[in-house]
Amino acid sequence: MARSAKPVRRDRSLRKFLALVTLLLAAGFATAWGYQQYRQEQRLATRYTALRPVAVGHSGHSISATFAIKTSAADARWAQQNRDGIEAALQQSLMGVDPQRALAPGGLQAMQQNMHAALNGLLATDKVQQVIVTDFLVSEGDY
Which residues pair with 54 in a beta bridge? Predict the structure, then answer.
């Protein structure tokens, strides 16, 4: 009987060892998966960068607008570092805005979409997810 007890004890030890290894592997995979989910969430999280007011005078009217841009959290630093270029591109884009269309129903939304496409095009990027007009003023005459 002593001979048969040894293989049973060895078999139990092997099962315990395999269970421990399986548990450690599962914990490692769970940790790696959780970290990947965290990284994905950080990449997809959004940030808003408020910009200085932009003013243009063109074709008998003046437009002053304040913008914010929406980027991913990962691109927020890029937005801060390229603030001057973003503002210059917005100013250039604002020159082409028809104030009557912008003031019509749905006009600001269309303007925001057009400026979003123009901004990404002028800056040769896709980091700007949205352009948001926070203030918009139109006056007769150039400034």
Answer: 65
